[in-house]
Amino acid sequence: MGRGGADRGSESSIVAALVGTFATVVIVWLTVIGSTEPAQAIPSFARQTGQPCGACHTDFPALTPFGRRFKLLGYTVGGGAYRTTPFPVSEDDKAKPWVPPISAMGILGFTNTQSPQAPPTDPYWTNNNVVLSPVSFFWGGAITENIGAFAQVTYNATPLGGFPDPFGHNWTWDNTDIRFANTTKLFGLDMIYGITANNNPTVQDVWNTTPAWTFPYAASTVAPTPASHTIIDGTFAAHVGSVGAYAFINDMLYMEVTGYRTLDFAAQNALGTDPNGAPGLFAGVAPYWRVAVEPHVGNHWLEVGTFGMIADVHPFADVFGNTFAMTDKYTDIGVDSQYQYQGDNYWFSLRGSWIHEFQKLDASFNSGAAANPTDELNTLRLQASLAYGGDNRVVLTGQYFNTWGTSDVALYANLASGMSPDSDGFIAEIAYIPFGLSAAPGWPWFNARVGLQYTWYNKFDGTTVGASANNTLFLHAWIAM
After folding, report:
1. 26 CB contacts (<8 Å, ≥6 apart)?
2. Is 99 helix (H, G, I), strand (E, B) or coil?
3. Cα of 172 vs its chain's centroid, Å
4. How would you write the pLDDT of the chain (481 residues) with one tens digit per residue?
C-alpha cells in the first residue's frame, strides 16, 4: 500500500495492477469455496436456525419477513442442528451440541475517485487504494430462551490522512443490540413484546429504511462523503447506551419507545470510540420513538411508518471533553415506507425515507460556531433493488440521496461551499452472493458478497463546482464466516 506523494509512475498501470490483484483474490476465494450442496445462512445465526441466507435476507443485511421476525424475537429462534443456549432447556436440546454463537466478517475494497484526494493522505495513496476495513467479530444468537444479542467489535483501518485528534482508535465496540423477547395475546391478538438495550439509534429496527441499516450496506472507508448528517443518522452511533421497550401486534403494528444517554468522555474512549466524532454530550435522556404498520397479502408486504428523536446536546468546547453550559436542541422526525414482493425466484424491494431535523442552536450561536439561532436539515433516500435467483444470487440496487438545509456561514464554514450542507446524487450497485442457497465446502457457514458500486454527485457539501471530483468507484468483497 503506497503513500501520498510517492512516485507511482503511470496511473493507468497502477490502476490495472490493483484491479487485477483484487480480482485475482476474489476469483481464488470463489473458486476454492464453490459448491453445489444445500445451504446454510450467515454464520452464527445459520448454525442456530438451520436456515439458508435467503430465508432471512434479500441481500445481507437487508431482511425478509422471516428475518424481521427472527430479530423481533430477540435472536433466539432455533431449529438447527445446534442447541441455541449453553444449557439444555428441553429433551430435544440434550441431543444437540452447543457452539458459541461467534462469527467474523471483513470487507476488502478497491476505491477509485474521479480526482485524487488532496495530500496528506498517509498511510494511503492519493487514489486507487486497496483497504481491508472493517474487520468485525460478533456474538450473534441466543443467550437464554428469551434473551439474545447481536454484539459487534470492529477493527477500522486508519482514516485517510490519519486520525484527526489524539482519541482515534482502530478497534472499537460497534453495533450492539441485546434483547429480551417473548410472545403473548393482547385482546385475542398475537403479540411479540420485548426490551432492547443498544448503542445506535435505529440499529434495533427491522426495516431497512432507517439509518443504521440503510443502503449502501458496504462503502469505501477512504472515499470522500458529504459532511452533514442529522443527529439520528449515525451521528451518535457507539457514543450512546439505551434501554427501550417494543411490541409487534398481530404481525402488523410495531411500536417502540427507547431512551438514549451518551456515555461519558472517558467511557467512550475506553470502548474505542472517539468522543469527538459526535458533536457533544446529551443533557439527560434523549427519547426515540418508532411506529410502523406492515400489512401483507400473499407475497406482498407494505410498511409505512414514522420514527424520531429529540436530543439536547452540550457541544464540546475542546477536544478533551469540556463542554459548553448551554445546549443545542435537535428534533428529528422521519417518515418511511418499504414495499417487498417475493416472486418465484426473486425479491423486489422499494424503500424510501425522509428525515427532517429542526435545530435550536443556543450554545453554538452564542459561542460563534453557528451564524443562525435556528437551522433545519433534511435527508431523503429513495431506493429500489432486485435480488434474482436463490442459488448464485445477483442483486441490482439503485438509490437517489439528497441532503439539504439552511445556509449557515459559520456552521458550514469548513465545507466546500462555505455556507451550505446540500448534497445529492445517485448510487448504483451490482452484487453477487454465491451462497444464497448453497454451502461452502469445509465450512458450510462461510458466505461472501462481491459488489461493484458507483456513487456520483450532482452537488457535494453545498456546491456543484467540483462535485463530480468525488465520484467513487468501489469494488469490494465482503467475507463472513
Report:
1. 450, 477
2. coil
3. 15
4. 434 433 343 444 444 544 454 444 444 333 333 332 332 344 788 788 888 777 888 998 899 999 999 999 999 998 888 888 888 877 777 888 888 899 999 999 999 999 999 999 999 999 999 999 999 999 999 999 999 999 999 999 999 999 999 999 999 999 999 999 999 999 999 999 999 999 999 999 999 999 999 999 999 999 999 999 999 999 999 999 999 999 999 999 999 999 999 999 999 999 999 999 999 999 999 999 999 999 999 999 999 999 999 999 999 999 999 999 999 999 999 999 999 999 999 999 999 999 999 999 999 999 999 999 999 999 999 999 999 987 678 999 999 999 999 999 999 999 999 999 999 999 999 999 887 666 666 667 788 899 999 999 999 999 999 999 999 999 999 999 8
Closest-CA residue to 329 (of 380, 275, 370, 381):
370
Residues 324 and 359: beta-carbon distance below 8 Å: no
DSSP 363-387: HHHHHTS-SSSEEEEEEEEEEEEEE
Q: Which three cell numbers stand for residue 361?
A: 442552536
Cell of 217: 450496506
Q: How far is 372 from 417, CA to CA, in rounded Å?
A: 17
Length of the chain: 481
CA nearest to 6, candidates 129, 165, 152? 129
- Please say whether the beta carbons of 431 and 450 come within 8 A: yes
Give per-residue burial for 88-127: e unless 16+ CB within 10 Å, then b.
eeeeebeeeeeeebebebbbbbbbbbeeebeeebebbbbb
Phi, psi at 180, each rounded to 5°: -110, 130
CA distance 476 to 473: 10
* 404: β partners: 378
What is the distance between the alpha carbons of residues 48 and 53, in angstroms, rounded to a whole number? 12
Residues 293, 251 contacting (CB under 8 angstroms): no
Q: pTM for the complete prediction?
A: 0.90
**Helix, strand, coil distribution of the chain in percent, nearest 5:** 15, 45, 40
User: Which residues lie closer than 8 Å to 73 by C-beta, 6 or more apart?
Assistant: 148, 181, 183, 192, 194
Cα 111 from Cα 96, distance rounded (Å): 45
178 grid coordinates: 441485546
206: closest CA among 95, 299, 305? Answer: 305
DSSP string, 442-453: S-TT-EEEEEEE
- Give the DSSP per-residue string, 433-477: ETTSS-B-SS-TT-EEEEEEEEEEEEEBTTBSTTGGGG-EEEEEE
